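job 3f2a | input accepted
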Amino acid sequence: MYEFQYAKPSTVADASTTLSADEANQPLAGGQTLIPTIKQRLNAPGTLVDLSGIGELTGITREGSTIVIGAMTTHATVAANATVRDAIPALAKLAGGIGDPQVRNIGTIGGSLANNDPAADYPSAALALNATIKTSTREIPADDYFQGFFTTALEPGELIVSVAFPIPEQAAYGRFEQRASRYPMVGVFVAKTASGIRAAVTGAGQDGVFRCAELETALTSDFSAKAAEAVKVPADDLMSDLHASADYRAALIPIMASRAIAGTA
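job 3f2a | predicted structure (265 res):
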């Protein structure tokens, strides 16, 4: 582990100021990815800016037809929250399936979205539900936020403050788990929203989370498990690794979408 400084601000403004002072300074949310990389000397922050003392970053509220979740809200809190379970049960289910109890009680929604791991669960929900990522300086639509492998639209010093999820007419999430890591080998979140059908896939794309046009087209005509299962997804831009080939992932995508809609995933 390299030597670094530590700061624990109490406001978003103070955190942003500290982070902007040096490009080597890094925010600490749940730390599920950051802490291991620091221990392995793969990451060397100048100052580690702990966000856990900022009360305004936690909490879940319903604002009209939108669920707003603070960036430092843990996965376990999202999974157990009555407001989320009532309005977007698929989102609560997704949160309850992340990692293990220790990860769910430490990891945060903001940390997950800021890291944008190509196999993380939350990016698929944010993209499929057409969420808005609210930061310390602006609001970013999910379609513009995810920009590739571990890459987002966040600028240096910019912090996620909350995530606003429009409540869908219907939504479902299915994942095929890689048993050792508990990350999804393929995860599919489908939603019937005010703007139409949206389907997002995680764990399979070479560039991270993506919207699946083939699923969206099929489900627009017939939002059913049968329609989803009949979809053919090309393997061209999908990931191949020691766990599964691109062709295998391509075959899994419609199956997991079908199981999600059927409620058997």
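job 3f2a | Residues 5-50 form a domain with the Uridine Diphospho-n-acetylenolpyruvylglucosamine Reductase; domain 2 fold (CATH 3.30.43.10).
job 3f2a | closed
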